[in-house]
Amino acid sequence: MSSSHRGTTARQSALIDEFAEISGTNEEVAASYLQRSHWSLECALDMFYRDGAPGAGSCKSSVNIGTEADPSGRYRSHRSLNNKIKVNNSKLGRFFSDYASLSTEGSEGRAIGVDGIERLCDDLGNDPMDEAWLTIAYYCQAETMGEFTKSEWTNGMQRIGVDSMDGLRNVLPELRKEIDEDRNSSEQIYRYAFTYSLDSGAKTLPIEGCLQLWSIFLKPHWTLYSQWEKFVKAECRHNVSKDTYQMLWEAATGAMRDEDTMRSDYDIAGGAWPVMLDDFYTWFVDPDREKKIGAAADDSSSDVEMQ
After folding, report:
1. Where exactly are the transmembrane stretches of this chain (predicted)?
2. Do residues 44 and 84 lie in contact, with contact meaning Cβ atoms separated by under 8 Å?
3. Spatial separation of the C-alpha atoms in residues 121 and 133, rounded to whole Å
4. CB within 10 Å: which end of the chain, N or C, has fewer?
């Protein structure tokens, strides 16, 4: 950014630079908004974001948050919905800038990348593997794991209702609860997490990655999760398709929600469930399954000893 601008005072030039840095836009747009707001940075930024942040990039959402079918945006943070916190756009812009760096991937030029996320975690006092980051990514509608563009971060923090490090730290317990305790919210984040976790160009997810997601999302809500995990580790080697991943939630909260329901309601013959779920049903009702698991474990131990 230039340190001086034709026809402006030193203070006005500094405000233009600061506005452009916070908003991620150019000096011409910055000067226009500042002039219209009589050189009040706070008012200029509020006007800029009310106008939809023109010139700062757009957020491509793969999941609608607050659609015509659900205009209330019921999956947004309760803090934001209740308007308990008014987001300060100037503070929010600085919050992003504190952790952003030049991006080699993002189309907006600057992004919070892996290094920035690690610094965020250090300052928040949490772990990058904390499940709350999946909720944050969902609200931001982040497209690339390990990166938040300017528009993604700004839109996400506005949905959550925070504009600072302290604000985000305070809502981390609520963000975890959206996965652990709120089944509706957990389902939306679960569906988003599949695409978010894919490698570039991939259409299926390795079984190890699925197990990590299933442990986060299904374990709190599915009484048969421990049996499912045993089955997957013993029998499954192939990558998982999006259809199978999505249908598992339907089964885990429906026809497979507990043992009695699965034995009576799961239709293996005509239910059109994915093969992986049919295989789980067959494995589950096999009276010798525990013996087979033990035998497989013994064989694995023998192989290790022979090596």
Report:
1. none
2. no
3. 10
4. C
Q: Terminal CA-to-CA distance of the chain, rounded, Å?
A: 61
**Which residues neighbour 284 within 8 Å (Cβ) at sequence distance 6 or greater?**
224, 227, 231, 259, 262
CA distance 15 to 235: 62
How far apart CA 257 and CA 262 sit, in angstroms, is 7
Cα atoms in the 13 Å half-sphere on the side-chain side of 289: 16
- Architecture of the domain spanning 189-295: Orthogonal Bundle (1.10)
Q: State the Cα–Cα distance between residues 211 and 209, nearest whole angstrom.
A: 5
Would strands 240-241 and 204-205 be described as parallel, antiparallel, or unpaired?
antiparallel
Eight-state DSSP code of residue 60: -
Q: Cα angle vertex 298, ends 296, 299, to 5°?
A: 65
Query: Could you read off the pLDDT of 43-96 as tens digits, one per residue?
Result: 787 777 777 666 554 333 333 444 333 333 333 444 443 344 578 888 999 999
**Where exactly are the structural domains of the chain?**
14-51, 89-181, 189-295
Is the separation of the CB atoms in 75 and 63 below 8 Å?
no
Share of the chain above pLDDT 90, in %: 56
Distance, CA of 114 to chain centre = 15
Element housing 102 (H / E): strand 101-102
What sign does the dihedral 180-121-162-170 (CA atoms) show? positive
What single DSSP character describes residue 100?
-
CATH architecture designation of domain 14-51: Orthogonal Bundle (1.10)
Decide if 89-181 and 189-295 have a common fold: yes
